[in-house]
Task: structure prediction
Amino acid sequence: MRRINSIDFTRGLVMIVMALDHTRDLLHIGTDPTDLSVTTPLLFLTRWITHLCAPTFVFLSGVSAYLSFQNTELKENQKFLVSRGLWLVLLEFTIVGLGIWFDLKFRTLFFQVIGAIGIGFILLAPLIRLSSKTILIIGLAIIFLHNLLGLLPFNQPPYSYLAPLFTFSVFQLSDTHVFAISYPPIPWFGIMLLGYGFGGTVFSLSPRKRKTLLYKLGWLSLLLFVVLRYINIYGDPIPWKIDRDPVLVIMSFLNVTKYPPSLLYTLVTLGICFIILSVSANKHGKFIKVVSTYGKVPLFYYLIHWYIIHTAMFVMLFFQGFELKDLVFGSFQFGRPKAPSGLEIWYIYPIWLGIVALLYPMCKWYASYKAAHKDNKWLRYL
Result:
């Protein structure tokens, strides 16, 4: 498969931004950035801009799947999707989970974006017999219609049995262990199907036509977001509100739901994604090259960045005077002590940039290693 540079750049850009979100998660003083009663504009925007990450990651996983399957056998592609999907789910509950919580007892089993992509690959395997246009339509149907399921009483049987597929769900496995699904598979699967459908339609066009179409689709998605959000009837379970403070009105308008990804959340994030894909097409230069390096090794980056950020959190805590005995681990515990800890948002940004810079030589090395060992099929799993 010939690499499309704008895919590597866009994926790399959102992965850099993703590290900002996780740095804030672990090192910030703890204010909820989406609680409009306590948040600040900078904190809100710090969280909001990182909404781009997961939809872009999942969407481009679908695009890349289609592009990588050209000129290969159907059964071979299906086998790869299932095996890589299972591998990603395994990583989610082992290496990723350990990086997030640093809990050797694994008291929090957290199903997030890596698991959602893994389940998406498994579900995609039987569907790739269909045309890319058919898969595109299925993806659009899920994205546009799944919010209707919010009308169902998921807290009551028999709908409660379907809840984990569509909504944020938490299961108490024991007194100490919890299983949480923050990325319900079906809504995210719709985004992956959209990506796969785009692979066979939009990304199969000539570079010039693809660039133009992505640009138009990006602005169309943003326009549709504004219209539906203004109407305030459908597309997100949390309506926006009028307030005397215009800043709060803007934040309320933009405060869309990620868990699960609402229609409006998907429109605004993928709209921006499409525009970035278009604007970065056929662009060159040092910045493009550096950012694209991260995008060429997404899973490698994802696995390592959690361990670096979490280590930085412990360094912060020790500098703030805490000791090992003060650290608290368990369900949904990062290891932060019960006493107040953390940094103001102003300090998060330079730490984030330092972590991203630290990751660059590692990603550059691994990208070069992959390029030099294309015959090693195992590298496709990382």
Remarks:
- The chain has one domain: 5-381.
- The chain has a mean pLDDT of 95.
- The longest helix spans residues 74-101.
- The first strand starts at residue 108 and ends at 111.
